[in-house]
Amino acid sequence: MHFADRLFAAVRKSGNAVCVGIDPRPEDLPEGMLDRFSGDRAGVSEALRVFGREVLDVVTGRVGVVKFQAAFYETYGPEGMAALQDSIRYAHEKDLVVIFDGKRNDIGSTAEAYARAYLGKVPVGGRFEPSWDADAITVNPYLGSDGITPFVKVAAREGKGLFTLVRTSNASAREFQDLVADGKPLYRHVADRLAGWASPHRGESGYSLVGAVVGATYSAELAELRAAMPDVPFLVPGYGTQGASASDVAPAFDESGLGAVVNNSRGLIFAYQKAAYREKFKDNWQGAVEAALSEMIADLAANTSCARLAS
Amino acid sequence: MHFADRLFAAVRKSGNAVCVGIDPRPEDLPEGMLDRFSGDRAGVSEALRVFGREVLDVVTGRVGVVKFQAAFYETYGPEGMAALQDSIRYAHEKDLVVIFDGKRNDIGSTAEAYARAYLGKVPVGGRFEPSWDADAITVNPYLGSDGITPFVKVAAREGKGLFTLVRTSNASAREFQDLVADGKPLYRHVADRLAGWASPHRGESGYSLVGAVVGATYSAELAELRAAMPDVPFLVPGYGTQGASASDVAPAFDESGLGAVVNNSRGLIFAYQKAAYREKFKDNWQGAVEAALSEMIADLAANTSCARLAS
Predict the structure, then answer these.
(1) What strands lie across the sheet with A184-185, from one edge to the other?
(2) Chain B residues lying within 8 Å of A184, measured CB to CB
(3) What whole-number distance in Å separates Cα of residue A170 and Cα of residue A219?
(4) pLDDT tens digits, residue range B268-295?
């Protein structure tokens, strides 16, 4: 099944466009989580693995999409990466669409190696078998088409997808992404190329397997980019902790409430740290995840076309 | 010891500026290499591990710097990553300077997590310990300063370095990197920012711990960028298989033959595939690595200021 069709079927089924970002910073893990395991590297990795499963247990049935931030698993070497692999498998058992957020980038056969590793199958003793088996990967466009088309090729073959950075949500995104060449900013040049990579790969939903990362913190650009790439699924970071509101992300959606997923990481998985929740969910961080998730779902429904997903 | 001082001490000691790129594409491994191990994932990973050690055995004492391409290890999941970890450790035992070529990029605390993971120390049970322990990492600048300064901070603290993509060696590099804004191409904007990140972090050699990746396939730009970033170490890909000659890379060096390392991956480690070597080194791929390395060292000495390193 085509990636975008799977992605938006999952969104439709859950009735919301939330992507739960799992960024397990060890220093933010709920109190006692690290103490359940040995005080060495294997123990921390086990804590990441168990925390991942426990987050997935809370969000399954509520949302359709999760995103894992690779950096926090790579932190603990192969042991940490094994925790990520376990979490991806567990998310698949729960029928969640899984985005590997690794912002990989390289050229030619090296880019193809990344694509095969994270989305496709890798050669093992004359056979091909999946390795990480994510549904989609985030990629960085600085190297141009040579760095993107190998991902598109593998994704098209395997029913997977990719999200290319276009406009990121951080303050210094402007330094390069807003430089104006030939009358338009760099991020529009990337968007225009991306529209070209995307258009041959549309599914029945009308959306392509080639997506874009467009930050919610620059709301006017979000609307502009939505218009420039009408058939490109958006992965929208920046909601919540990074300061964007539901009305800021509203332009990402089409009139049916499809076309985008809105990521929230810390604001959900570490919701127990929020002032409003700290007392109420003192010994129940999962309760805080649930409450924050319900709040976000209601916020998107009240302020975006996502309201139409529930009907 | 400051990264650039270590890097160029290694170059001086070896008498050449070659960086041996270890990109173990399984389909290119010497005949019989995969058959030495079991036909499953553990076997392929073991082949990567052993191949890495055998390459390092050949090049130790001949060169000062090696670069590992992460993609080919990530291909095989945590098992493949364990092979990479072993190779990095083994390279350190051999006193080689190790570059982790992963082109990582993210912002804020996520970028810092990558930096700690690959260059610094990570928290484990109240202590901090190294995880991957590379000497330098390649990074992608698309996200601006927020994505670079966390790497610079960790590198400065740990005596490590980074190489930021500026001008890559691939054909489509031009699509975005050559867009002209405010009278100069994007790659010059990146270079000018990079010069600013680099200048507070110079070692005794005069070079900074903040380096740049500048492809050899665009020789005029290489000269321009050398002038724009006089205190920035260059990691130069594109020599050999990608078509650049020693005269193309010559502008990367200062008059003492320092300032840059020139990477060669396939052209060295898979030299046994070259028409000229195929017959001669039929059952001795290590011999082909040695021969190709000697050829490259001689070529750089004959056509660049690296000749001065040997004296």
Answers:
(1) A184-185, A180-181, B180-181, B184-185
(2) none
(3) 13
(4) 999 999 999 999 998 899 999 999 999 9
pTM of the entire predicted model? 0.98
Touching B: A residues 124-153, CB under 8 Å: 124-126, 129, 131-132, 140-147
Q: Which residues pair with B235 in a beta bridge?
A: B213, B261
ipTM computed for the complex: 0.97
CA distance B86 to B52: 9
Asked if B173's CB is within 8 angstroms of A144's CB, the reply is: yes
Domains and CATH numbers, chain A: 3-21+59-70+96-273+299-309 (3.20.20.70)
Q: Please state the length of chain A.
A: 311
The interaxial angle of helices A186-198 and A219-228, nearest 10 deg, is 30
**Interface test mutation site (partner B, options A22, A35, A48, A74, max chain B beta carbons within 10 A):** A74
Give the integer Cα–Cα distance in Å for A13 and A20: 16
Q: How far apart are CA B229 and CA B194, in angstroms?
A: 8
Q: Which helix (H) or strand (E) holds B194?
A: helix B186-198
Given this model, what pLDDT does residue A282 score?
A: 87
Q: Give the dihedral sign, CA A126/A132/A133/A134.
A: negative
A47 touches chain B (CB under 8 A): no
C-alpha pair distances (Å), B229 with each of A289, B76, B180, B193, B252 = 48, 38, 19, 10, 10
B175 in reach of chain A (CB within 8 A): yes
Pull the structure tokens for residue A184. Answer: 């338009």
